[in-house]
Design a protein that fits this description.
This protein has 421 residues and is of the alpha+beta class. It folds into 3 domains: 191 residues, Rossmann fold (3-Layer(aba) Sandwich), CATH 3.40.50; 74 residues, Up-down Bundle (Chorismate Mutase Domain, subunit A), CATH 1.20.59; 115 residues, no CATH class. It contains 14 helices and 22 strands. Strand 9 and strand 10 form a beta hairpin. The two termini are 35 Å apart.
Length: 421
């Protein structure tokens, strides 16, 4: 059993109460997450170690290095990184206890409501949820902040206070310090009544999940979904099924606009269009009557390098994009005699064209990739081989007609692109 221990009032009360039970203390440990956002964060970690020594509870400290991108919420970044670190710290089947309490639940419901969340958000924090290799349990959701403070005060315990908790530029702090006091003064039972509403919403979401699970099972074709089966559902059930399918793949559900694109526009597109909807690092693509989920590999600024294929038939690509290999093959698509001694290999820049068939038309690489339903992640990493300004091959997908073998070709080569794992 593991406790997420910040050293603050709430987690100090939880850890102390558990450690006071000898049978629990024997199998109890704690994890402290140092976000590294405050100059005193290391001293806070030392204070947590000292508290855990007094309680005879082993402590693990995980220090984070947060890289914030432009426009990204520091609150959201820190929360996601904290839960990722807690998940990584859990042993298989282990229970992680957090000290979230009644007022935390009220804050969560109101924040989700102000952000326009759907039922999953308004159901707020579940008492039990999977996390990493273990289980997250919030045993204090029915306990008030005042009750936890009384535990701390009765024992004369010193607790840490993060100064950022007073920074009202953070939404949760503003809500806690400016809005909730006014609400509670008018409706003293607000925390309990809103928590009850959240439980009702959670029960409604459970029913929707059961319906979605049945709809997804009927539409499933392996990991993909049948576009025809989805079109047969009423629109609200279709959205519900798609939301469930995406979330249970372990990916983040898209916003309402992109979900609507998938549920309506993508499914209504003409046959053979192979439309794609993308958000974050996730894509949904329709191809051959199926919807598939994919994760886009983030690629940096691209690359360009020189390859001498006759001297070195293997080439490792940068940016984790795999490697290339040329091998003799009876049915290879490259005439060895026409292949230049030096090639340029690079990523896509846009506007590339090649002629896949002798006597056929020149085609844009973009249209070829779309027509063949190549996943968006693969499109970003496909290596292009150039002789001067002329495109020779796009990975092992297509070879331009001028380098393809004829009836009299003495030696053929096959280009293999070993894709990244």
């Amino acid at each position: 059993m593991c406790v997420a221990f910040s050293g603050g009032e709430d987690s100090t009360a939880l850890l102390t109460l558990l450690a006071e039970v000898p049978a629990l203390r024997a199998r109890l440990r704690a994890v402290h997450i140092d976000h590294g956002l405050h100059p005193d964060s290391r001293s806070w970690a030392r204070a947590c170690r000292a508290r855990c020594r007094l309680l005879q509870v082993p402590l693990v400290v995980r220090r984070l290095t947060l890289a914030r991108t432009k426009g990204q919420s520091l609150e959201a970044l820190a929360r996601a990184a904290r839960y990722a670190a807690l998940a990584a710290a859990l042993r298989p089947g282990e229970v992680l206890l957090t000290a979230h309490h009644l007022e935390d639940q009220l804050e969560t419901v109101l924040l989700q409501l102000l952000r326009g969340a759907g039922l999953p958000g308004l159901a707020a924090m579940p008492a039990v949820a999977p996390l990493g290799a273990g289980v997250l349990v919030r045993p204090l959701l029915g306990v008030s902040r005042a009750q936890l403070r009384a535990v701390v005060q009765a024992r004369g315990l010193h607790c840490l206070e993060d100064p950022s908790n007073a920074d009202e530029t953070f939404d949760r702090n503003y809500l806690r310090r400016q809005v909730l006091p006014a609400i509670v003064s008018r409706w003293p039972a607000a925390a309990r009544t809103v928590a009850r509403s959240a439980r009702h919403i959670g029960a409604a979401q459970d029913l929707l999940d059961r319906l979605a699970r049945a709809d997804v099972a009927r539409a499933a074709d392996g990991a993909a979904l049948s576009a025809a089966a989805l079109r047969a559902l009423p629109l609200e059930r279709r959205r519900n099924a798609l939301r469930y399918w995406i979330s249970h793949s372990g990916r983040v559900v898209p916003d309402a606009q992109r979900l609507e694109e998938i549920a309506v526009t993508l499914l209504a597109a003409r046959a053979g269009a192979n439309p794609v909807v993308a958000w974050g690092l996730t894509t949904v693509q329709r191809h051959a009557g199926q919807l598939t989920l994919d994760t886009v590999r983030p690629v940096g600024a691209g690359y360009e390098l020189t390859w001498h294929p006759h001297r070195a038939p293997r080439l490792t690509l940068p940016a984790g994009c795999g490697r290339l290999e040329l091998v003799p093959a009876a049915h290879g698509l490259i005439d060895a005699s026409t292949l230049p001694m030096q090639l340029t290999v690079r990523t896509r820049r846009g506007g590339e064209r090649l002629r896949p068939r002798s006597g056929g038309p020149s085609r844009s690489l973009k249209s070829l990739l779309q027509s063949e339903g190549i996943a968006l992640g693969e499109r970003q990493t496909v290596p292009l081989l150039f002789a001067g300004q002329n495109l020779v091959a796009a990975g092992d997908l297509w070879v331009d007609a001028r380098w393809q073998p004829g009836a009299q070709s003495a030696k053929r080569l096959r280009l293999i692109w070993h894709r990244p794992a």
